[in-house]
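Good morning C.,

I know you're traveling, so I'll keep this short. The sequence:
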Amino acid sequence: MPLIASRDNAHFKMLRKLLASGRERRQSGQVILDGLHLLETYCAQQGVPDEVLLSESGAIRPEIAAWLQTAANGLRVSVFSDALFKQLSVVETPSGIMAVVRPPSPLPLAERADSVLLDGIQDPGNLGSLLRSAAAAGFRQVLLSNDCAQVWSPKTLRAFSSFAARKRRSADVSGDISRQGTGDGRGGGAQSLYRRTERAAGLGIRQ
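The tokens, ready to paste straight into the viewer:
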């Protein structure tokens, strides 16, 4: 695999745009996952990524090399110098592996599912933390207004951590959110959500 080491490389520039621009992600229908755990989870749930991105040092890490040995034949792989890869990575210490993927297809609204409604959460890190908490508490779906941060932005995915590749995304339901009522949930038989033994198989996220 040839090494990409120039900042003027057209593919490198395209990836930088994909990471930085929500408009670019919407137009291309692609997003970037950072880290082997997210990639493994995505592959188990959704299939083969469009492309795998490696750093020069990451390509020889035992855990990454072992994963590549089991990856599908014909997988597109690009290798970048460590300096260029660091410019792509959203974490301070690069993981050595990222992937260009397509988000899951939309699913219909589950009207009777336990849900969390989020309105105007514009900080990606805060949004990711809320999604992680919702998944840990066993909620089945999260509904987001249009003015929330993008679910598939790199910073949201980073905060969402291991749950990110399991989520399912569907069409905008901001109109549904505005019509929903809320309750305080303080019934006499209330119990901690985190103590419930049953957990949702997947967290449906709709924006």
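Safe travels,
E.
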